[in-house]
Amino acid sequence: MSEIKYTAADYKGGQPRWCPGCGDHAFLNSFYKALAELGVPSHEIAVISGIGCSSRLPYYMNTYGMHTIHGRAAAIATGAKVVNPNLTIWQISGDGDGLAIGGNHFIHAIRRNIDINMILLNNRIYGLTKGQYSPTSARGFVSKSSPYGTVEDPFRPAELCFGARGRFFARIAAADGPHSVQTLVAAGKHKGASVVEVLQNCVIFNDGIHAAVAKKEERDKHAIFLEHGKPMIFGPNKEFGLMQEGFGLKVVKLGENGITEKDILVHDAHCQDNTLQLKLALMEGPDFPIALGVIRDVKAPTYDQAVADQIAEVSARQSYHNFEELLATNNTWEIK
Question: What is the DSSP annotation of 1-32?
Answer without folding.
Answer: --SS---GGGGB-S---S-TT-HHHHHHHHHH
